[in-house]
Design a protein that fits this description.
361 residues; alpha/beta; Rossmann fold; 4-stranded antiparallel beta sheet; 12 helices; 11 strands; globular
Amino acid sequence: MTTRRRGVAPRPPAESSPEVAALVEKFLDTSGVGHDRDVVRGIVLATLDLTRGDASRLDLKLARAALGEMAEAFHMFAPYRDVRKVTLFGSARTEPSDRTYELARELASRFAAAGWMVVTGAGPGIMAAGNEGAGPAMAIGVNISLPGEAEPNQWIAENSKLVEMKYFFTRKLMLIKESSGFLVLPGGFGTLDECFELLTLLQTGKAEPAPIVLVDSPGERYWYGWEDFVTSQVYGRGFADPVEGSLYRITDDPDAAVREVLGFHRNYHSRRFVNDAMVIRLRYPPSDLELASLSTTFADICSAKGIWRTGPLPAERSGNDHLDLARIALEFNRVHHGRLRQLIDALNALCPPGAATPSRA
């Protein structure tokens, strides 16, 4: 797709040239590209479009570096794609003697013991605590080169599950994209940036639903102070709907933090849009009575069809997409993601007592 800027005549995309298209196909054949060939073709054509426009040398170098970083990160994460992961954010300035460091190390250790991998930014402070607590087998690091913080911490530096990044935007993509849950401990501007980015992605539906837990050390009020600001200045002035508060939890109890992340996946597995329907995959299907109750309770985010039971749809069958799981579907309005989170919570509440969260996605 070609995007036109105001006042600038559009240039024909590379794919419009039969000669270029034929050369690209020959290149793909020679390179042995088989699966997802349409996507790879699009990447090659988009790259060629950069050279046909008015991109500067700096623009081209940025695009090259960003794509290279993503390729390296995708390769590193690929063997662990089916293992659930939790990303741990927090200050690089937290000292090992700080009780917040100890809390981060404990949380990482508990998730590793539950079979979850722990992803951090690989730097010092809370990131080091996360890598230390997770242990070498369960730790993943996504480092960024910064003056004074260029080296990854000792707990991940020699680990093969470490990737180096130049840009914050590619780093944040990998810290968020691969994980099924997020723990955010107190920190500075970078931590707050990551926290608000997470909330923005979930609020707008640009990321898959996931639990976000804002964790204080016992007795501290960093996140409760943050929430006071959000409540008075963001919700209070109408810049966001208070229902979006359902997208995160605040606690100073490590047990509650672990329960919140693990509990999110007790019943809810994943979702997928198929045409107008949002299909929600579940481990335990609701009864007819429960389904009717959900349709009534969440009528504000559904079409008049409500919520219905379904089997795997043709698009899911063609991709062998978790065909063993139960399914419900609704025509979600794609706007009220805080309410969607409340629906997920209601579905998780339907689990039988003692239901455990699997560590495999």
